[in-house]
Specification:
Length: 437
């Protein structure tokens, strides 16, 4: 049964929001216009200019790395970071072959596909590592299992979901033990802090190759854009070269390596330049939203997306919740559709998302784990118990633990827009309560 919320007495008296409450929308402050106008007025509208230079300096300073290379998007940054890792590990590839051809790469499983698609762009095979419940990120235990199964793997792609740092101390120690290197996807976690071996550092400095995004829904935005972050001048120079079609030092177009058109434009950089000063303000607003949800939902059989309070300070990009197993109403999902049944005292993610949508607000299902995606359904998947594929037996009863699938099933992303007022958020909290009536 799909509920018609306008006729459902549980929701009597709730008014539809006049203006949509977004999951996470851009927040402009005014200076963006000034720096974009500056680029146009001075005619520096292409992929060089003062805005690019300035944001590369500002972001490197904020994050605490030596070099930042501004690119067209976070996906481009991840592609070049992954390619750089492949080249370092396995040498320069032929122009029609990726640097990871014939090699497996351990990858975060519960993330956006842009984290790990570059492994496929480079002809590698992603091996998905299951998630842990403490931070909803890559499980170090499952990663250790993966090294037992595939000891030759030398590359790990790790993301920080929804702005919450993963267990990087453990993951880095495992990587070091096995001589592997890390591509860090900090697209969602710019400004999040992590205590690494007793020292507070920023996400975006925790891998050998690190990436952030300025996509329209991120904590700060350029409307688009991303960055590659590094302490290595050679790597920064190589990414700059690859991102501008890999021109060699000749008066004509001369190429010895495959190139890309991935550099950021000075106009986009103008938007980013206007946003950087507001990063901390956005984080504070998002944290207040997370805390208001935590308090407002405390009496329900649900929990907020967790984080390690000793070792991390997330940027709280998205607030999420997960429903206790015994309060889950029946829900099934197909490839593109779903069905659920309302039950008193219970609810399910799709019911809550439908209810939120009916009143003109935007939530979202938890990012569907990569090992469940049709495109990657045949890739290896490793859980804390070892191989996560083919785990059931028609003749023997029993279940196995797939943490990512479980969080996807019971969790959802809540409206987390930093322009949502406390009063509007209280209505969202009220709607969620009524779903459990
Ligand atoms: C975890 C993660 N990685 C990578 C990306 C890709 O960034 P972009 O959209 O800037 O290409 C995103 C978001 O878009 C993301 O959420």
């Amino acid at each position: 049964m799909i509920t018609d919320f306008s006729k459902d007495p549980r929701f009597n008296g709730i008014e539809r929001f006049e203006n949509k409450i977004w999951l996470s929308s851009p927040t402009m402050h005014g200076d963006e216009q000034k720096w974009v106008d500056d680029a146009i007025r001075t005619n520096w509208v292409s992929t060089v200019g003062a805005n690019i230079n300035e944001i590369e300096k500002q972001v490197a300073e904020y994050v605490g790395c030596r070099y930042a290379v501004a690119l067209s998007c976070g996906t481009a940054a991840l592609h070049l970071a992954t390619k750089l890792a492949g080249k370092k590990l396995y040498g320069q590839a032929r122009p029609n072959t990726g640097t990871l051809a014939g090699h497996k790469v351990f990858c975060s499983d519960m993330t956006f596909d842009a984290s790990i698609n570059p492994v496929a762009y480079e002809d590698g095979e992603a091996v998905f590592i299951d998630t842990e419940y403490d931070t909803w990120n890559m499980s170090p235990e499952a990663l250790e299992k993966a090294f037992e199964m595939y000891p030759d793997v030398k590359l790990i792609v790790v993301a920080h979901l929804y702005g919450t740092p993963g267990k990087m101390e453990e993951i880095k120690a495992i990587a070091d033990k096995h001589g592997a290197i890390i591509v860090e996807d900090a697209a969602e976690s710019l400004g999040a802090k992590y205590k690494l071996n007793g020292q507070w550092v920023e996400t975006g400095t925790l891998g050998e190759y690190n990436c952030i995004s300025f996509n329209g829904n991120k904590i700060i935005t350029g409307s688009a854009g991303g960055m590659f972050l590094t302490d290595s001048i050679e790597d920064a120079d190589k990414v700059r070269k690859w991102s501008t079609q890999s021109r060699e030092a000749a008066p004509w177009y001369q190429h010895e390596e495959i190139g890309y058109n991935y550099r950021m434009s000075n106009i986009i950089a103008g938007v980013v330049r206007g946003q950087v000063p507001y990063l901390d303000e956005h984080i504070a607003q998002k944290k207040a939203i997370w805390e208001r949800y935590e308090k407002g939902l405390a009496d329900l059989p649900v929990k907020m997306n967790p984080w390690d309070r000793e070792k991390s300070e997330p940027n709280f990009w998205l607030s999420c919740m997960i429903i206790d197993e015994d309060a889950m109403a029946p829900m099934v999902r197909g490839e593109q559709d779903y069905l659920y049944k309302s039950e008193s005292g219970k609810s399910c993610p799709q019911e809550i998302l439908d209810a939120i949508t009916a009143f003109n607000a935007e939530g979202r299902p938890i990012w569907k784990p990569m090992h469940m995606q049709p495109i990657y359904r045949t890739n290896p998947f490793v859980t804390v118990e070892g191989n996560g594929r083919g785990r059931t037996n028609a003749y023997i009863s029993g279940t196995f633990e797939d943490v990512g699938a479980d969080i996807f099933r019971r969790g959802l992303c809540l409206p987390s827009d930093n322009k949502m007022t406390p009063e509007q958020q209280d209505v969202i909290i009220d709607i969620i309560h009524r779903c459990f009536l």
